[in-house]
Amino acid sequence: MRLRLLAVVALLVLAGCGAGPTATPSTTPQPTETDVAVTDTATPTPAATPPATTTPEREVRVRNGELPFDATAVFARTQALLGSDVAPPRNVYVSEQSYFERGSYAESDLFRWLGLTGGGSFRASAYVAHPNAVYIATGNQTATELETILAHEYVHIVQRRSGVHDRLGRRVVDGSTDTAIAASGVTEGAATYTAQAYWDRHIKTGESPRAAIERAYANATGARKYLLARYYFGVRYIDQRVDDPSELDSVYEAPPESSEALIHGPTEVVAAPTVSIESDWTEASRSRQGELFLRGALSTGLPDETAGRAAAGWGNDTIVGLADEGDSAYVWAHRWDDRANATEFEQAFAEWERPSDASYRLVRVDGETTVLLFGTPRFVTNATVERGDGIVVRT
């Protein structure tokens, strides 16, 4: 299970993939898309991806249809903004559908019990299959929208060919959902930032990429809102650190180490709470979820502003998934920045509208530490939480 968790989290940064349901609880978010331009609508699975080629030509060939602009010129303009010099993708594959289904969303117990539901699958208007193949859906987009969407995808081509994806992927620590989201926020934020610069320079009509992301995030709920957060906060993070897309390497070289830093800027992550389980239940997963995941979960049962304030005091966390005889449960320990932030979370949790019939119990371990037990009632009811050498949970 541990190796599988590491592999799935890495996919969150490196490639579009949807993990199927698992027999044991996973702390990793199931819908894992990167290299996609988001859309509010979507449809069937695209045709099989052709094998990559390595021809040195600089022309982008449009396959299976037409685009209302020169795909090669769009790549050249995007590269000019980035100040890069890499080979373009050999092919752009056009589909008349409205969107692509990128990764089916298996609603795990973790997501369901925290209200992060309604994802179904992640809808993408375009995606990079590999460095020589971009897919783009034209059925629900205007010509100018398609052009900026393709510019967004071309940024991912440059990121792949220049090694950015590999470098960021190596920063995902111990299967941590939090570090994976922070890395993904950088790649998607950079692509959105560059697409905005492209729109400012070459289009300036219709809705801008930045406005589209802000609208989609504001209108989204549940799992989709959590998934869109990496674009929303990612482009804000980039915008505060560079004045031009040609400066993005400075962000790639020193990316945020947590989703807390993605939201608020550079911060020091405090030591994670140590959690020991003394139980017949089997430990199935262990991870750090991060502030962005916590914020997403709280927003399912609280106003966005309240959820944001309650999550902002996040200092670190450890979540442990447990399984026993087909049942599952979670122990989620949080260390807060200070006593006041722990109290604010405690108060917000008391008001949080429970999203399911699972059991929930919050324990204040000390002034700056809380432990949330949730899942199968027989675990949540019977478990004891004590402060020993770290946090000890017994059943």
Account of the 3D structure:
With 395 residues, the protein is an alpha+beta fold. Helix content is 40%, strand content 23%. The chain contains 14 helices and 16 strands. It has helices at 2-14, 71-82, 109-113, 143-161, 164-169, 177-202, 209-219, 222-239, 249-253, 259-264, 290-299, 304-311, 339-351, 377-382; strands at residues 17-18, 31-32, 36-38, 61-63, 91-95, 100-104, 121-130, 133-137, 275-278, 282-287, 314-324, 327-336, 359-366, 369-375, 384-388, 390-394. The strands form 4 sheets. Strands 3, 4, 5, 6, 7 and 8 form a 6-stranded mixed beta sheet that branches. The model is unreliable at 1-36 and 38-56 (pLDDT under 50).
Number of structural domains: 2
Distance between the termini: 22 Å
Note the quaternary state here: single chain
Average pLDDT works out at 86
> How many helix segments?
14
Major beta sheet, specifics? 6 strands, mixed
SSE pattern: HEEEEHEEHEEHHHHHHHEEHHEEHEEHEE
What layout of secondary structure does this protein have?
Blueprint: H1 2-14, E1 17-18, E2 31-32, E3 36-38, E4 61-63, H2 71-82, E5 91-95, E6 100-104, H3 109-113, E7 121-130, E8 133-137, H4 143-161, H5 164-169, H6 177-202, H7 209-219, H8 222-239, H9 249-253, H10 259-264, E9 275-278, E10 282-287, H11 290-299, H12 304-311, E11 314-324, E12 327-336, H13 339-351, E13 359-366, E14 369-375, H14 377-382, E15 384-388, E16 390-394
Parallel strand pairs: 4-5, 5-8, 9-16
Antiparallel strand pairs: 1-2, 3-7, 6-7, 7-8, 10-11, 11-12, 12-14, 13-14, 15-16
Helix pairs in contact: 1-6, 2-4, 2-6, 4-6, 6-8, 6-11, 7-8, 8-11, 11-12, 12-13
